[in-house]
Each structure stands twice: as structure tokens, then as C-alpha cells.
Amino acid sequence: MNDRFYSNEDLPNGEQKRRMWRALRRGTRRRRSLLMFVPDLPSFSYGIAASVIVYFLAVGVLSTVRSSIAGAQPDAVRLDQAYQLAIEQFERVVPRVVASRSASSGPSLEARQAELAQLNTAIAELRLATGEGDLSPLKQKRLRQLYGLKLQILQEMIENAEVEL
């Protein structure tokens, strides 16, 4: 019995082998994509689109949760935050006090700054003592008085030209 399935005439010759391998190389060459040499551009594009959608979804959920938490706060807390925000904005609008002042306005300016520092410490101490949940009417009234005094001092400093605008 003959163990050979192919005879020598069935095998390709040298020229046929070269053409065959050349065709195989051309057919199996990887084509480079123009966009950052990404081999699978559709999959890459879908991944980018999905990540952008997930990002915007997360931002939307976080902003919704924040606004619902802010809306659920009691009126006393919102009033306290409004006072704090008003004073912070007022202090940002008022430029820094000029260091070189005349001798007549020097002591009064220093006294005003000392008053503001004392008010700031009193407000901080009262806020620390009350915490977030404890806003009794008496403490609320005291905080409003302190905020009002601070605003009044800042306004007087502007009206008396103790700060440069």
C-alpha cells in the first residue's frame, strides 16, 4: 500500500510558492486606521460614547441629590446660610483696607478691625456650639444680631471712607 497521498507533481514549484506566500502576506497585512492607529474603531467609538453618557448621567444624579438635600433643610438653616453668604459676598466686594492711612483714621480703623475680629470669633463660637441640628429660636436670634452687627460695621467702614473702593 502506498503511504503517500501526494506525488511530487502535486506539490507547488518554487515560483508557485513565492506567488502563494506573496498573496498570503498581502491578504493578512493589518490595515492601520487613520484615527490614532486604533485597530477596532467602532468598538472604540462606542466605548467613548458610553463613557460620556455615564459621566453626564452621574453629574445629573449628583446635582439632583444635592438640590433635593438643600431643599429639605429647615428654614432656620437656610436663613443662617443666607446670612453667611451675604456677609461673605459683602466682604469680597469691599476691597482690602489700605495699610497706609493717616494718623487720624488709624486708631478708628484698628478699632473697627478688632470689632470685626471679635464678631467673627463670636459667630464661629455660636455656630460651633449650635452644631447643624440645634437651632433654637434664641440662638437664631443671637446669630442674626451678630450678622447684623457685622454688616453694619462693614457698611459704616464704607460710608466713612475707611476702606478704598
Would you mind describing this structure in some detail?
- By secondary structure, this protein is mainly alpha-helical.
- Helix 3 (75-93) packs parallel to helix 5 and helix 4 (106-130) packs antiparallel against helix 5 (137-159).
- It folds into two domains: 32-72; 74-165, no CATH class.
- Mean pLDDT is 76; it is low at 97-104.
- It has helices at residues 14-28, 41-71, 75-93, 106-130, 137-159.
- The longest helix is centred in the middle third of the chain and has 31 residues, at 41-71.
- The N and C termini lie far apart (112 Å).
- 68% of the residues lie in helices and 0% in strands.
- The chain contains five helices and no strands.
| Average predicted confidence as pLDDT | 76
Secondary structure tally, helices: 5
Helix and strand pattern: HHHHH
Rg from Cα: 39 Å
> In which range does the helix fraction lie?
55-70%
Task: Summarize the biggest pleated sheet.
Answer: none
Contiguous runs where pLDDT drops below 50 for at least 5 residues: 97-104
By secondary-structure content and strand pairing, the structural class works out as: mainly alpha
Q: How much of the polypeptide forms β-strand, as a percent range? A: under 5%
Q: How far apart lie the N and C ends?
A: 112 Å
Indicate the overall shape.
Answer: rod-shaped
Strand segment tally:
0
Tell me the count of domains.
Answer: 2
